[in-house]
Amino acid sequence: MSAQLFEWQNKITAWRDSGLSIAAWCRNNNEGYDRFIYWRNRLQPPESPSAGKFLPLPLAATPITLECHGISVLVTTGFDPQLLKDILSLLKGW
């Protein structure tokens, strides 16, 4: 792996971990926005159209249980979408 490729992988990871927008991270780290976008697009695989989005479920479909790697999350009518997003984000990091 080239040094430049490794360097940009680390920069993109640092940006993700920062919680900042790309523009803010670039300003704070003296990086060019266009250059950052180029490397992010080069190194980051394209997301599926529904990645990171909630799909509407008919009321008859609730409650549902999401299971992955032995962890179950029960989703019922009236769930808090932000809480579910936070839980899934936490689980994704494990």
Keywords, separated by commas or semicolons:
4 helices; 94 residues; mainly alpha; single chain; two-stranded antiparallel sheet
Query: Order of SSEs, N→C?
Result: HHHEEH
Low-confidence stretches: none
Q: Main sheet?
A: 2 strands, antiparallel
Task: Provide the domain count.
Answer: 2
Give the CA-based shape.
Answer: elongated
Helix content: 40-55%
Arrangement of strands in the largest sheet: 1-2
Count of beta strands: 2
Whole-number mean pLDDT: 80
Cα Rg: 18 Å
Please identify the structural class as seen in this structure: mainly alpha
- Helix count, DSSP H or I runs of 4 or more residues: 4
Describe the structure.
The protein has 94 residues and is mainly alpha-helical. It has two domains: 3-43, no CATH class; 59-92, no CATH class. It has helices at 3-18, 22-28, 33-43, 81-92, and strands at residues 64-68, 71-75. It has a two-stranded antiparallel sheet with strand order 1-2. A hairpin with a 2-residue loop joins strand 1 (64-68) and strand 2. Helix 1 crosses helix 3 (33-43). The radius of gyration is 18 Å and the shape is elongated. The mean pLDDT is 80.
Describe the structure in brief.
With 94 residues, the protein is mainly α.
Write the layout of secondary structure elements.
Blueprint: H1 3-18, H2 22-28, H3 33-43, E1 64-68, E2 71-75, H4 81-92
Antiparallel strand pairs: 1-2
